[in-house]
Amino acid sequence: HRGAYAIATACVENNLNVAVAGIPKTIDNDLAYIDRSFGFVSAVEAAQAGIRTAKTEATCNIPNGIGIIKLMGRSAGFLAAYAALGSGDVDLV
To answer: Mutual orientation of helices 40-61 and 78-87 as an angle, nearest 10°?
Structure first.
C-alpha cells in the first residue's frame, strides 16, 4: 500500500489525473474477496513436488520412514492444506 500511496501522492502533486490501484500479491491465498491470489497455484505445485521428494527419500532407505516438510505461510495454512490434500501422500498436517 505504501508504494501505491506514494505514486498517487506524486500524481496529485503534479496535477495528473491518474487512478492508482494497489493489487496485493501473496502466495498464502489469505486475502478476502478473491478466489485465488497471485502465485498460489504455482506455490501449491512446488510444495507438492517437495512432498513427493520427501516421500521418496523417506521410503527408499527404510520401510516406515518419515518425511517432514515445513511450508511457509503467514497464519492461515492454506498453502499447507491445499498441498497436503492435493498430494494424497500426507498423513498429518
So the answer is: 50
Record the pTM: 0.69
* Residue from 28, 30, 35, 89 carrying the catalytic annotation: 28
Give the separation between CA 90 and CA 93, rounded to whole angstroms.
Answer: 7
pLDDT tens per residue, range 7-62: 999 999 999 999 988 777 778 888 788 888 888 899 999 999 999 999 888 888 78
What does DSSP assign to residue 33?
T
Q: Which residues contact 8 (CB under 8 A, 6 or more apart)?
A: 18, 20
Contact 79, 28 (CB under 8 A): yes
CB within 8 Å of 78: residues ≥ 6 apart: 28, 29, 30, 40
Q: Would you call 91 a catalytic residue per the annotation?
A: no
